[in-house]
Queue: 2 jobs
Job 1
Amino acid sequence: MERTFAIIKPDAVERKMAGKILDRIEAAGFTIVGMKKIKLSTAQAEGFYYVHNQRPFFKDLCAFMSRSPVITLVLEKENAIAAWRELMGATNPANAAEGTIRKEFAVNIEENSTHGSDAPETAAFEIAYFFSQLELV
Ligand code: CMP
């Protein structure tokens, strides 16, 4: 079993699509072992996305991620990291495969509805950024 970290981003929560996305997550066989709805500050978004701090889109990305609440999740399944990335689809919804979450729900490359960890080390950092051990059940 592997764990990954996921976010349902402001664009999806604002458009009341969180329930549909959670339904897809459970239908795909993930167990939700942690879940909370929070409103990030700009500084908290910057800390989460620090690996992107030299990218031209960093400031806009952190403004977007802190403009309204998000739903943070820890998902468990065999090969959860790869499986969640496959279910989300490509970062840019224009390139996302049919049937993926981003193809169906995302607005554009920035407002792309969901986030997922890209490697085990990233997942460990991202899970610990939002959840304590006691909150993972
Ligand atoms: P995410 O998977 O959360 O990881 C980094 C985020 O940066 C990404 O999803 C998008 O929301 C955003 N992003 C990545 N590339 C671009 C880009 N070229 N322009 C704007 N936003 C981007």
Note: The beta strands are 2-8, 31-38, 70-77, 114-116.
Job 2
Amino acid sequence: MRDTGSTPWWQGGIIYQIYPRSFQDSTGSGMGDLNGIRRRLPHVARLGVDAIWISPIYPSPMKDGGYDITDYTGIEPLFGTIDDFTALVEDAHAAGLKVLLDFVPAHSSDQHPWFLDSRSARDAERRDWYIWRDAASDGGPPNNWISEFGGPAWTWDDATGQYYLNIYAREQPALNWRNPAVAEAMLDAMRVWYERGVDGFRVDAVEHLTPDDRLRDNPANPDWTFEQGPARSLFRTFSSHQHDGFPMVTRMRALAEEHGGRLLVGEAYGTLDEVMLYYGTDLDGFQLPFNFELISAPWNPRHIADFIDRYERMIPEGGWPNWVLGNHDRSRIASRVGAEQARGAQMLLLTLRGTPTMWQGDELGMTDEPVPDHMLQDPWAINNPGTGLGRDPVRIPIPWEDAAPGRGFTTGEPFLPLSSALSAAAQEDDPASMLSLVRALIALRRAEPALSLGTYERVRSDDGVLAFAREADRKRLVVALNFTPEERPLPVMGAALLSTIPQRDLGAVETLLPNEGVILAA
Ligand code: NOJ
């Protein structure tokens, strides 16, 4: 394992997200699986990252891509068996890669035996494991909350004459974490995976653990636009980030510590103030509460520089930053900012202070691709037909090869359309490829502690250029990124170590070329 002395591995490390359905199929089912991941570990290890985070692999009816779980300690047969999982962990560890799983505490599948029992009768043993309420006086839902995927966040159950809460799809009933038995059962599930050797978890949708128990209506958001999705038409004042959820996070962390300091990365979308709460009052929360600014922010150097300063200021003392450039929920970076800027974006991700999370396929420059209606998988797309909403376009299978059928992803019928991006094989030996750039960036980050563990200082930010310095052991490197398609002056002079422009003569870097990013010793 790579360990940076007394510094925990994840501070100097890089996390790579794998969405198992789209990574590599080993059976011809058309969908990726665990043995497929094993087969492609050399690609991941050669990138130089430290850990893989695998999106859910548990038994699931796949109403929300595996985030609807029927058994928290099992393996979805489409993905393989527990033996395949054990072999994957062994192979990953042998390749120097930690393994993080996705833990989905806020809701189960409606097919989970707990929910089948809960909905069987009002006095069922597990009735109170989920959030049931009577109808409002007009017969409608108990409050105005909207599901993240559109429509009311409440589903009527005819048999028992009450509504249950579903913050996401109706097939994802919200678990009731205020019931101590639920908290115990979920922590037990984490324990099982620790004993099976996982190095930590990415914890899903944690802002929804304990929605307001008085179920107060959420206020309207006057600035809402449709592209934000129906759920954002209300502020989530009462449905998210409630104070009694935080002790649950502390318990998850205590369990991670009991197992020798496993890593917890928390997914909680919110304001910076809200995100900070997940570090815990005494750094006893998540080691890394996700920072999603780079996947939602305008691509503007001033904005990004101001955000970095604010973020750096707000992180509690002893807390560690992190950055995310893409994931399975948001439009890909190359689609958001264009192919040229996507190269600089990788440089930004891999040189900022804090643990980077990379999204599979971004290292190949993949873009969002259209998905025909008959192939749609995402409940967000299915519930909002004709709107263009949905996340399938960012989950297109990885194009591994060109000559092979199914682009090396599958020998069967792929569950989503195949990518039109340049394959990993085609990029492998091309020094100008995105893959080569990402590998070079990671190699430099690894060679220069300034880029991983060093300090951060803003050097310049204007309408076109962002420049910052990283320093460790009296070695100072400056990263300068040109966000414009025009040439710009270099903010500082120094010896160029790496440029995003292929075949650039590093001895002759005197200006920033259009869209160029450079790293200088300065
Ligand atoms: C966040 C996950 O990233 C997303 O894919 C999922 O739909 C929701 N949480 C619900 O689990």
Note: The mean pLDDT is 96.
